[in-house]
Amino acid sequence: MNILFVCTGNTCRSPMAQAIFQHKTKHHVQSAGIFAGEGMPASMGTTEVLKQQGISSDHKSQPVTDDLMKWADLIITMTKNHRDLLKQSYPADADKIYTLKEYADPQYEHAWNKLKESYAHLEEAKLAGSEVDANLTDQINQLEKTVQNVDIIDPFGGNYMTYQKTYQELDIYLALLVKKIENKDR
Does the keyword section mention Hydrolase (predicted)? Predict the structure, then answer.
């Protein structure tokens, strides 16, 4: 499987995700940035955090291109804004573009399905002229927060601890991604 990780400048989150994922699997992985320049190294924070984890990376930034989009079987973005911009720019590839959290986390999928179900109940109540249950409204509000919380922390400009926090978040969701892909391969 060919996987493309995408962030903004391709110097922090996506190269970190690429390096961690390559460390965990044998899949073909690249990273790119929506507004990336060509050939920039990974940020010092990214390099340092990866090094502390025993993961090497000889990263050079690259922008998202038509060829990369065609190459990828799965495109994983770091934020919903990245996802939405790519889907708008590459509509033919929309079915393979996701944020990391929404694709990898089974709790996200469960929350999304529960939200759709809750909206259906809300519409049924409105159509029937019934009073809307306050618990249903509260449930919808909570589920909306869950499904909207799909961004990976951007460490750009932050200190070492910020990069370490991003690493920890990526490591959790990339482990879920590995598990999901391995289950699909079976």
Answer: yes
Positions marked active-site? 7, 13
Structure tokens at 70: 């065609």
List the structure tokens of 86. Answer: 């790519």
Q: Nearest-CA neighbor of 12 among 74, 100, 78?
A: 78
Cα gap 161→146, rounded to integer Å? 25
pLDDT tens digits along 25-35: 999 999 999 99
pTM over 0.85? The answer is yes
Residue-wise pLDDT tens digits, 74-110: 999 999 999 999 999 999 999 999 999 999 999 888 8
pLDDT on residue 186: 65
Handedness of CA 154, 155, 156, 158 (dihedral sign): positive
Give the side-chain half-sphere CA count within 13 A for 113: 5
For residue 17, CA distances in Å to 10, 72, 170, 173 come to: 10, 15, 6, 10
Separation of alpha carbons 62 and 39, rounded Å: 6
Please give the pLDDT value at position 184: 78
What does the DSSP 8-state code read for residue 63? Answer: B
In the structure encoding, which two tokens stand for residue 120, read together?
A: 């259906």
